[in-house]
Amino acid sequence: MTDSSLRLPAEWEPQAAILIAWPHAGTDWAPRLAEVETTYVALASAIARFQTVVICVADAQVRDRAAALLAGAGVDPGRIRWVPIPYDDTWLRDSGPITLTDGSRFVLADFRFTGWGGKFEAGRDDRLVEGLVERGLFHAATHQRIDWALEGGAIESDGQGTLLTTWNCLEHRHGSQRRDAIAGTLRETLGVDRVLALEYGYLEGDDTDAHIDTLARLAPHEAIVYQACDDTGDSHHAELERMADELVALRTEAGRPYRLHALPWARPIVDGDRRLAASYANYLIVNDAVLVPAYEDPADSAAAAIIGAAHPGRTVVPIPCRPLIWQNGSLHCVTMQLPAGVLAPA
């Protein structure tokens, strides 16, 4: 059971760093490595403008290549922290630590990572948090292994005891468990009071079974930013309309409706005959900024403006994400925030 004084911070609270893993020829990025590295350079460059970026690298050769690319982009090397560690893939939102804190102590909740329900090999990724702890990355942090499957992209926290998620994902991971038992495990392990789970919402090309971070995001001041679809001829329209209705019906802990920010819909992006999951909801919050996906679509600028309005006072930085969605995820999926105070001195 999690200490009752611990809580799961909101992403918009102060951060120590963002954790990423550099793609390399031993990952599924191999066929389009140079292309996806352009996105990683843009991502790491943007993060480093505002805070530290911790970069996992598989070996010295991967580090040297990444360092050369980032130096060429003018990234301050003092903002980069390298961690040599093995990994299967680079989706650290789902294999990285879910960090709870009481303000001075930290617990690294290390849930079982199954490769999204056994879809992909995940043995090294399942040991990633343990490996980061062994390498001395964290300060005043307790490593808590939890034998229950959960990915960071499946949950959204407001930092005040409310968790937003989807039943689709949770029931794919724990089909033999009752919903009240699933919600109870989330409350117990994450220190939350309320679990709000959506029935509807999905994206073609998403193999996470409807992670909430591709659909709807909690935002400051009792707000939710969500992916809408205004194209009545699109296969997503009916499902996302039902999800929007669910969001309208949700209430804050104080009983008020949430302030809703609907994101525009990008035109279909396909790779061969495969529809790719281009969600604007998959954005990343860092200190003093919000990094937003860009898909070379006319809706990019409108989406950035809406996300910026939902996170006032933050610089809005577009990141090119077409290379990422080729592997069925986007900007938020490849990152994990580390709360202020959790990093050990370099």
Automatic annotation (TrEMBL):
Signal peptide: none annotated. GO terms for molecular function: agmatine deiminase activity; protein-arginine deiminase activity. Keywords: Hydrolase. It comes from the Bacteria. GO terms for biological process: putrescine biosynthetic process. This is Peptidylarginine deiminase-like enzyme.
